[in-house]
Design a protein that fits this description.
The chain has strands spanning about 15, 25, 45, 55-60, 70-75, 95-100, 105-110, 110-115, 125-130, 135-140, 145-150, 160-165, 175-180. The chain is an all-beta fold. It has a single domain, classed as Jelly Rolls, CATH 2.60.120.920. The strands form 2 sheets. A 7-stranded antiparallel β-sheet has the order 1-2-13-4-9-10-11, with no helix packed on it. Strands 3-12-5-6-7-8 form a 6-stranded antiparallel β-sheet, with no helix packed on it. The protein starts with 14 loop residues before the first strand and ends with a strand. Pfam families: PRY, SPRY. Keywords: Metal-binding, Zinc, Zinc-finger. One of its GO terms (molecular function) is zinc ion binding. This is B30.2/SPRY domain-containing protein.
């Protein structure tokens, strides 16, 4: 597993990042955080402190008890401000994600959705990235079930891990999203 931590300076103000920086929780309360260019202001995203531009990397994210989340990789140049969909993971040329909503998995890149015919509710999602292969792959980590692979070719920027724990949906999605450590 590649070591990774969440950057609170990128987190939407309705996300609470744990002191250990491995957990993001949605709250209805707007957090008292400084405004900066790195912070997402309409999408519930947070990015990793770290970025990578070579090698192979693998991360595991615990999504247990959640009915809505998005996980992926993004270039640091992802738009962070405004209501345009390009701020959302996978809705632009510079990010790749898998979304889980209400029992359905969908892979996204460049605004194109790929509904995934998967009936299993996974507790842990693996994200694999290979710079030499130009590959971003998502797995249901519980059983190592491949969910979707994006064959990117050549990455043009560093990549950062991106997480969105989703709204709490009247309390049924209140669990945090958590990075698993080795």
């Amino acid at each position: 597993l590649t070591e990774v931590s969440l950057d609170p300076n990128t987190a939407h103000p309705k996300l609470i990042i744990s002191p250990s920086q491995d957990c993001a929780t949605f709250t209805n309360e707007w957090q008292d955080v400084s405004e900066n260019d790195a912070r997402f202001d309409t999408t519930l995203n947070v990015l990793s402190h770290q970025s990578w531009d070579s090698g192979r990397h693998y991360w595991v994210v615990d999504v247990r008890g959640k009915v809505y989340w998005e996980l992926g990789l993004t270039y640091p140049s992802i738009p962070r401000k405004g209501r345009k969909e390009d701020c959302w993971l996978g809705r632009n040329k510079g990010s790749w994600c898998v979304e889980f909503f209400d029992g359905d998995y969908t892979a996204w890149h460049d605004g194109k959705s790929h509904p995934l015919p998967i009936g299993t509710h996974f507790n842990r999602i693996g994200i694999f990235c290979s710079f030499p292969a130009g590959l971003v792959m998502f797995l249901g980590e519980d059983s190592m079930t491949p969910l979707f692979a994006f064959c990117v070719g050549t990455f043009t920027e560093h990549l950062q891990l991106a997480l969105c724990p989703g709204h709490d949906l009247q309390g049924c999605n209140s669990q945090p999203i958590k990075i698993c450590h080795a």
